[in-house]
Amino acid sequence: MHILRINTRTQEARTEPVPPTWERLGGRGLIARILLDEIPATAEPLGPKNILIWAPGLLVGHMLSSCDRISIGGKSPLTGGVKESNAGGSTGLAVARLGIKALLLEDAPADDRWWVIVLDGNGVHFDPADDLVGLGVYASAERLRERYGQRAAISLIGPAGEMRLRAAGIQNLDRDGMPTRISARGGLGAVMGSKHIKAVVFDPPKGAKPPLADPKAFREAQKVYNQALMAHPQTTVYHDYGTAAMAAMTSHFGSLPTRGFSEGYFEGWERISGEHLRERLLKRPKPATPTHACMSGCVIQCSNVYTNDDGEIITSPLEYETIGLMGSNLGIDDLDVIAQLNHIANDLGLDTIDTGAALGVAGRAGLLPWGDGARALALMDEIRRGTPLGRVLGSGAAIAGKVLGVEQVPVVKGQAMPAYEPRVIKGTGVTYATSPQGADHTAGLTIRAKVDHLNPEGQAALSRKVQISMAGYDTLGACIFAGFGFAAAPKDTIARLLRARYGWDDVGEDILTALGEETIRLEREFNRRAGFTPADDRLPEWMTREPVPPTGAVFDVPEEDLDTIFES
Amino acid sequence: MHILRINTRTQEARTEPVPPTWERLGGRGLIARILLDEIPATAEPLGPKNILIWAPGLLVGHMLSSCDRISIGGKSPLTGGVKESNAGGSTGLAVARLGIKALLLEDAPADDRWWVIVLDGNGVHFDPADDLVGLGVYASAERLRERYGQRAAISLIGPAGEMRLRAAGIQNLDRDGMPTRISARGGLGAVMGSKHIKAVVFDPPKGAKPPLADPKAFREAQKVYNQALMAHPQTTVYHDYGTAAMAAMTSHFGSLPTRGFSEGYFEGWERISGEHLRERLLKRPKPATPTHACMSGCVIQCSNVYTNDDGEIITSPLEYETIGLMGSNLGIDDLDVIAQLNHIANDLGLDTIDTGAALGVAGRAGLLPWGDGARALALMDEIRRGTPLGRVLGSGAAIAGKVLGVEQVPVVKGQAMPAYEPRVIKGTGVTYATSPQGADHTAGLTIRAKVDHLNPEGQAALSRKVQISMAGYDTLGACIFAGFGFAAAPKDTIARLLRARYGWDDVGEDILTALGEETIRLEREFNRRAGFTPADDRLPEWMTREPVPPTGAVFDVPEEDLDTIFES
After folding, report:
1. Contact B399 A404 (CB under 8 A)
2. Domain assignment of residue B422, yes or no
3. Does the pLDDT of residue A538 top 90, yes or no?
4. How far apart are CA B465 and CA B461, in angstroms?
5. What's the gap in Å between the CA of B43 and the closest CA on chain A?
6. pLDDT category, B304, cuts 50, 70, 90?
7. How many of the other CB atoms lie within 10 Å of CB of A223?
8. Most-buried pick from A262, A326, A513, B34 (CB within 10 A)?
9. What is the CA radius of gyration of chain B?
10. A200 - beta bridge partners?
């Protein structure tokens, strides 16, 4: 494995050995390390000193189920702090097969030309991309696949990233070649746009694979993990219903964000639930399916393909977060409309969470009547056209709130909250408040814990535990659901896999915790240098005083708990 | 003197004695103290926990030349930190004559009605203001003066404050009753709008005056100060040319912000200079004049009245900062156009600095061709109409840059820079970077110092000295130009005035420094609690690497100097 640096201004590429301090990190943890080592913390996120990084997790490269995720990172234009956003699809596997431990896109060009970077067995080259500028993600991906072959993995941006909108993400192809696995959060698409890179094509030579120190031991550990994962009941739930299964649970708790986070219960929740989604997709013509794998080797297959009655794909996948933020959060209970909103967001290359939250802000500002799907679609079209209102909404919920004069904005560190009302699921509220990433459910969701979610006591300890695990999984390249398998498998499974892969004989059972703690430590240090303080580790103040119906809860976890969460 | 608290939700008013720790402060220093004591540092600036404060400086109330300024303050919606913005006109005098040391507008109403608060000899009452909503500042002031008499002082907001735009200020009447003395900076107009207060009318009983402990000693010290002020050469310069005199000096140094802060020299500078302004106003029919007093008793009279050829007032005053930000910064060299832009900003109740800087951002984004006055006027009309683009521009330069995808934005702590290019006048750059107020020339302008402004050495010490003096003057209620008089007068003049006014016999010669140091200490502590760190005490990173023509200077004062500036 090596480090690949590409200067986007001079178009020079340089291969370097992996520095010792980067060796034992991957994915999210490695990105935090690189940010600390290479990016001045006060650099402008869309300026030439920011670096856009691809880093596969430590376990990526051998089709371990749900463990081939790619982490993309840099300094976030949305939060101003550290940012790692990971995705499934084929990118992680391809980067690892190219022998790349981390790809660093540095500097920024001075002119207006756009480029595709191609990494293959022959090295690195830049191809002009001017013909792709302005094209949506779907059309761009189609042309790129025609040009570079159906086997290549591709990371690309849509018009949102080109426009440097702060809710822009970076799309990756799934195993079917559809550009739907988005590193969505924190505006990394805008960073890629600031460097005038429309796409990076990863085309490893056929058969290339990262070496295994002990192939036999690896296969054995893999088998143990797979069995544990397959046996876990949640694997079946996500297989059948996808993430949308969550809607029933959040509705039950009164924690489904509704009408601009003003309520926690949506009267139309059943029509946007996982059960209803499954039923609908089973009735629709192929390729509609409620069960679909985003990456090769995954046994969970939580993804889905959403078609209309004619079998035309509207979107894939339709996820719970999108259903929450672009459904109940806008008072919309029609899955077909939500799927269309999702499709436009995907095609523009936008985070559906921050965009949905921004539409919720528009709702509070009187620009979007609750439940008005046609108007929501028209607002998405404003973004596509780059109108001033479109740019406001594409800048995410925090900026939209400032411009539109709405104070009740559901953001932390400038990043919008996913679809778990934090006044009700208070442990997740602690995660939103204290994660170095900003509000993020994948940083530490607590809703499955058997606790009284409304009781502020003990939520910080719970959040801490989950945050550290998740930071560990993100460093391994493991999907949030892989955790079910690892948690059920023998305690040394991750250590066995890492020993077999790298020959690190000193790795112990506590490796997940060790990686997670180190990752969060590095991230907090970068944020500290970038100017973050305890005052940033807070939910918005209005959530501490405005009760959310029907529970009437406010966020009342003591500030001291937030301030000391990572001290113990 | 007493403290007056008015709850804008319940409409209850309460008079309280002055707490001992507030006693020896006024104006800016008292506002910092009140913020620390009463506003949770992480409160939302436009939420009910923010408090909008009027506090006259310690010397206000006796028509001491240039020393009757009103400080208005609260937590800034633009910077998120401490904010004090002072203005001339008649408000300071009237507040002091009502015996009010500080007026605190607390809480926020839950409904949509708007109010005028009236303070007079009979106490406090609320009058409906719904008929004034949407009216510009000029029409509003006219109606208010008809209703409440020509003698009353008034603080009021325009449509910008009503729309809660973050570049909105609070206007005050000048001694002629024109609503042109704006507490412009930091978005305090939006705070007033968030509390649904269109205006506060201050109507002290005739003849009311704050008591003097020793009237004779006060008159003696006043005489000494007045003589020193009158004898100072700068008094004559500002009397004849107003603040616009500065254009020649900044042009000479290459520090006149030009075309979105991309250059420091404007080829049309002579047409927007103080000399040209004076010449034009002397030719125009009355009431045009290059010499005009904003408050009673002022001997400097740096203000002006700008008319068209028919003698109709276009604006008053036309100040250097506006000429810089709405003139050279937009490539506009026609004073008539600049005066019209100024008029619209005044009528909307907008800070011309942050709005001008936002228009400069629009220029960099390609929405405003440099020098196109008609387009600039059309953009101001977008703000008036509250269109999405208008709301973006009215939100100030920092937010405009984020929405419009412009990284080279001239802001610190979210607040736009006045018309001194900080890469060239580096001491002022240090002030911009380190003032707790955000970028602000009145916090410590160094351009008159006899130093090499391009040499980074010693600039922090220079800035520190001036910042402390200015914080002291802002606490006294003294205009930035009163400093000429105090600096030239015997060293104990301020102490003599304070002793004679309050009977504080222990006040010594170092009182200006003591007040300034205490004020900055309090402000920094509030900012610290609000989440500010050394990373916020920086110029934007692009100014450290993009040279500004014609000097080719970058901002290169060492970060260590910025970090330690207030430590010694």
Report:
1. no
2. no
3. yes
4. 6
5. 6
6. very high
7. 10
8. A326
9. 22
10. A117, A155
Within 8 A of A540 by CB-CB distance, chain B residues are 44
Instruction: Compute the average pLDDT of residues B367-382.
Output: 98
**B370 in contact with A at a CB cutoff of 8 Å?**
no
Residues ≥6 apart with Cβ < 8 Å to B218? B62, B212, B497, B500, B501
Q: Determine how many CB atoms are found less than 10 A away from the CB of residue A18.
A: 15
Strand partners, A3: A16, A102
Q: Which residues of A touch B535 (CB under 8 A)?
A: 41-42, 529-531
A533 — contact with chain B (CB < 8 Å)?
yes
On the question of pLDDT at B297 being above 80, the answer is yes
List the one residue out of B184, B178, B199 whose CA is nearest residue B355. Answer: B184
Residues of chain A in contact with residue B403, where contact means CB-CB under 8 angstroms, are 388, 391-392, 395, 399, 403
Closest chain A C-alpha to B467 CA, distance in angstroms: 23
Cα A481-A227-A204 angle, rounded to 5 deg: 65
Alpha carbons within 13 angstroms on the beta-carbon side of residue B58 total 30
Nearest-by-CA chain B residue for A42 = B535
Which of B49, B383, B392 is the mutation pick for testing A, counting most A CBs within 10 A?
B392
C-alpha A49/C-alpha A104 separation (Å) is 12
A vs B, Cβ pairs < 8 A, gives 93
The pLDDT assigned to A336 comes to 97
Beta bridge partners of B75: B82
Whether A127 is in a domain gets the answer yes
Q: Mean pLDDT, to the nearest integer, of A250-274?
A: 97
- Mean pLDDT of the region B32-47: 97
The CATH code of the domain that includes A78 is: 3.60.9.10
Coil/strand/helix, residue B132: helix
- How many structural domains does chain B have? 1
- DSSP states along B239-306: HHHGGGGHHHHHHHHT-S-BTTTTBS--TTGGGGSHHHHHHHHHHSPTT-EEEE-SSTT-SS-BEEEE
B529 in reach of chain A (CB within 8 A): yes
- Residue A19 is given by DSSP the state P
Residue from B195, B402, B415 whose CB has the most chain A CBs within 10 Å, to mutate: B402
In a domain, B76, yes or no: yes
Q: What is the pLDDT of residue A568?
A: 60
Chain A contact for B532 (CB, 8 A cutoff): yes
Q: What is the mean pLDDT of residues A247-266?
A: 98
Share of chain A above pLDDT 90, in %: 96
Report the alpha-carbon distance of residue A160 to residue B563 in Å, rounded. Answer: 37
Q: B43 contacts in A (CB within 8 Å)? A: 541
Tens of pLDDT, residue by residue over B129-184, are 999 999 999 999 999 999 999 999 999 999 999 999 999 999 999 999 999 999 99
Query: CB-based contact (8 Å) between B9 and chain A?
Result: no
Q: What pLDDT sits at residue A194?
A: 98
Q: Does A541 touch chain B (CB under 8 A)?
A: yes
Contact B540 A165 (CB under 8 A): no
Report the relative pairing of strands A303-307 and A100-106 from DSSP bridges.
unpaired
Q: Residue B223 — φ and ψ, nearest 5°? A: -65, -45
Residues A346-366: pLDDT tens digits?
999 999 999 999 999 999 999
CA distance A107 to A6: 9
Of B387, B391, B531, the CB nearest to A536: B531
pLDDT digit string, tens, across residues B313-352: 999 999 999 999 999 999 999 999 999 999 999 999 999 9
CA-based nearest distance B172→chain A, Å? 24
Name the residue in chain B with its Cα closest to that of A526: B535
Place of tokens 């990190």: A25
Helix (H, G, I), strand (E, B) or coil at B134: coil
> Smallest CA–CA separation between A168 and chain B, in Å?
12
Q: How many helices (H) and strands (E) does chain A have?
A: 22, 17
Q: Is B526 a member of any domain? A: no
A403 vs B392: CB contact, 8 Å cut-off? yes
